[in-house]
Specification:
This protein is mainly α. Helices cover 67% and strands 0% of the residues. The structure holds zinc ion.
Amino acid sequence: MDQEKLLFFKGLLEGRLHTLLEEAGKAANDMRQESNGDFPDPTDRASLESDRNFLLRIKDRERKLITKVKEALDRIDNGTFGICDSCGKSISEKRLMVRPVTTLCIECKTEREHQEQVEKQRGTRSRGGFPY
Ligand SMILES: [Zn+2]
């Protein structure tokens, strides 16, 4: 992927990260108010964001998303962004536009989902015995 496109995705991901951190910051702030504040410096957003406990306070879903976006930014920095984790081929730009945090090309993703489904069905069956 050329530099210009990498910069485009970097901007996209940084924007997303910013939004997520802002939302998570608000959530953490709400939690702090509920717990009557044992937060050292609530007005300092920068220290809030770099606080290593920060991610523990926010919702699981947001935390996962933030981690994913950060990992994608890491991949841009180390030159592996847009390369499938599983087969090593390029992930299509169309797919990256929709899901810039993805680590799998559409073929591998489809295959993985299929495998998960098969495993799930096996799991259901092995629990077995119920008529539904
Ligand atoms: Zn692949």
